[in-house]
Design a protein that fits this description.
single chain, alpha/beta, Spore Coat Polysaccharide Biosynthesis Protein SpsA, Chain A
Length: 261
């Protein structure tokens, strides 16, 4: 599958990433309705491998993944949670000797077309980590993010930036790219198996002195897109604040945090 970009542009992109192994990881759960649409937009002129980890889906996600041509399909026979899914994703990407790893949700909430931009920032060694931000610009509300989630996102981000002394536009995006070097440096295997895994990774990234770049990312909210309910969102929010507080205490030497040692 080829994207509709001018040939000169494609040649330029291929030369840009020559020698860099790009691996896309798809943490999947009941993603059969949106997987193929997501997969078809992946820019395979620069992507070397795709890994899908099916976290014990109740639909035919794994079977469909193999049918559409995904070479590396791993199925958890027991649901391990969002964080547990990512642990398997990153471990497999490193096993494949990836130079750049892009974590993309297969629910088509984020457009794979931004992979070019995210990978280029890492391949040119401008930044070791890149996030696709729904908050930069007006992508979140325009794409249908519920108002309560938007308000909670802004509150949590303000609190996290204050406690972690950073200036990210958001900490909760599901579209992230990492250099292989960063993933090798982080002991993410001891992080939570739940949604808070993402924020623990961010704390580890900043603790190691790495910078995170952000690019504007349009997003879509629709029935098939993955989401968590209000109760789980509230638990997640409290967990996020807990991570930021522990990071603050660790950096100010008030209390050590094992995940950052």
């Amino acid at each position: 599958m080829r994207n509709n970009y001018p040939p000169k542009f494609l040649n330029y992109v291929c030369k840009m990433f020559l020698g860099k192994k790009i691996v896309i990881v798809l943490p999947a759960y009941n993603a059969a309705l949106t997987l193929e649409k997501t997969y078809k937009e992946i820019p395979f002129d620069i992507v070397d491998d795709v890994v899908l980890v099916d976290d014990c889906s109740k639909d035919n996600t794994s079977e469909l993944a193999r049918q559409i041509g995904i070479k590396h399909v791993i199925r958890h026979e027991k649901n391990r949670g969002y964080g547990g899914n990512q642990k398997t994703c990153y471990a497999k990407a490193l096993e494949l000797n990836a130079d750049v790893v892009v974590m993309l949700h297969p629910d088509y909430q984020y457009t794979p077309k931004l992979i070019y931009a995210m990978v280029s920032l890492i391949s040119y060694e401008l930044y070791p980590v890149v996030f696709g931000s729904r908050i930069l610009g007006k992508g979140a509300l325009k794409g249908g993010m519920p108002i309560y989630k938007y308000v909670a996102n802004r509150f949590l981000t303000f609190a996290q930036n204050t406690l972690m002394n950073q200036k990210l536009s958001e900490y909760h995006t599901g579209f992230r790219a990492f250099s292989g070097e960063v993933l090798k440096a982080l002991d993410f295997t001891h992080n939570s198996d739940d949604f808070i895994f993402d924020n623990q990774m961010i704390a580890q990234i900043f603790n190691k002195g790495y910078e995170i770049a952000e690019i504007t990312c349009p997003t879509k909210y629709f029935e098939e897109a993955s989401s968590i309910n209000f109760k789980r969102s509230s638990i997640y929010g409290l967990g996020v604040l807990g991570v930021s507080l522990r990071y603050f205490f660790h950096k100010t030497k008030i209390a050590s945090w094992k995940l950052l040692n």
